[in-house]
Amino acid sequence: KAVAExxxxxxxxxxxxxxxxxxNDLYNTLNKANQAIQGIESxxxxxxxxxxxxxxxxxxxxxxAHFWIAYIxxxxxxxxxFDGPENPEYGKRMAPQLASVTDNYAQIISDLQKAADLLPLxxxxxxxxxxxxxxxxxxxxxxxxxxxxAQYDNSKWALIPPLCDxxxxxxxRALITGKATPKMNYRAxxxxxxxxxxxYIWSVTSGVQGxxxxxxxxxxxTGWAAYNGWGYFQPTEELFDExxxxxxxxxxxxxNFGDKFTYFGxxxxxxxxxxxxxxxxxxxxxxxxxxxxxxxxxNTNINPNGDYPTTALNLPLMRYAEILLFKAEALIQxxxxxxxxxxxxxxxxxxGLPDISNPTMDDLKHERRVELACEWxxxxxxxxxxxxxxxINAPLHGRDHADKLNPASPYVIKEIWPKRNFTAAKLxxxxxxxxxxxxxxxxxxxxxx
Length: 449
What we know:
Elements: H1 2-8, H2 17-42, H3 48-73, H4 101-118, H5 135-149, H6 160-169, H7 182-189, E1 200-204, H8 214-218, H9 237-242, H10 249-253, E2 254-256, E3 260-263, E4 266-269, E5 279-281, E6 315-319, H11 320-333, H12 337-350, H13 361-371, H14 379-386, H15 389-393, E7 396-401, E8 411-417, H16 433-438
Antiparallel strand pairs: 1-6, 2-5, 3-4, 7-8
Helix pairs in contact: 2-3, 3-4, 3-5, 4-5, 5-6, 5-11, 6-11, 11-12, 11-13
């Protein structure tokens, strides 16, 4: 769609529905959290345990929504609107637009700390409560907020390693290991059986009747006539080439023509009649492996309605591997590259790769890209905060196979998306001009737009 292309080409007006709906939904979530905080604080006949749980969840969700709003639309020279019931003028005024996104980050950290102080550890929850906010998730988003804040204030890097250790030691988070092969170690992360195991920190709780549609969104369009895949997003040749030749994460992440995989109980070789790049995201394919005869009707782990393609696989938003990567990055940024080797190599050893001594930022960037590829960790934001604008602007390539029905078909490399013109002047996205008009000009447009 043209509005999506405007965003991908960094020329949006701010009115695009993919931007405005996110803004509205996130502020709705923030507002509901404010209502919960206000109501619980003034509530009577409520137990301390229930009060703590309710307030902890409300502060966590307020911070979670605020974090997304802040880093997407916030700028060093102009923040995003925020208000809360702790402010005397709350409810009597429009939410004020903060002076800098760093002010938003300070508020987010405050809320996450309150949430961490109030919430229980994840392992105290029974099955019915899995998916609720928990202490290690609050610490995890504190780590990510500090990393984004450090783009403007290097002192924030020093706050990250102790939090990462707390997530490991007190939050009992750890990488999934101990499988038969390094490839199986990594594949297990993206399996239904491991929705709630040690690597989980925060995810979209999913199910066959609700949750994340993303596995269906990235599945081959029409799913080879077995299920209504949408085929919207594909990996690129650049991502494929980023992996070391013996890195098992590539095969887990990317389906390449001729790769074997199980689809509704039967083995098949990958091909695509519609992928622009000649690849498919493979990380979320496990729910489609179940069944007995190649038909979706035999699979109880997916929504039978292909127009709403949810599955029983949770969509990870943050997992422990990202915490290790932030710890390594923080140590490198504070001149402790030798110490950064430990968290970075913990990730590499899980998949059978050799250690790196005294890792550099280039090593960190590589590892972050291949470990978290095609996940909701926002590589674009990584490239922005690192100042890697040439990588944002570089043209993208894929494989054009001569016979798109033949898994063994030869191919040529072709450009699938042209060079773009992102600049540091447009570091954050534009606010909808309609939102600014509704504020009677109180809100100002994002600098650069």
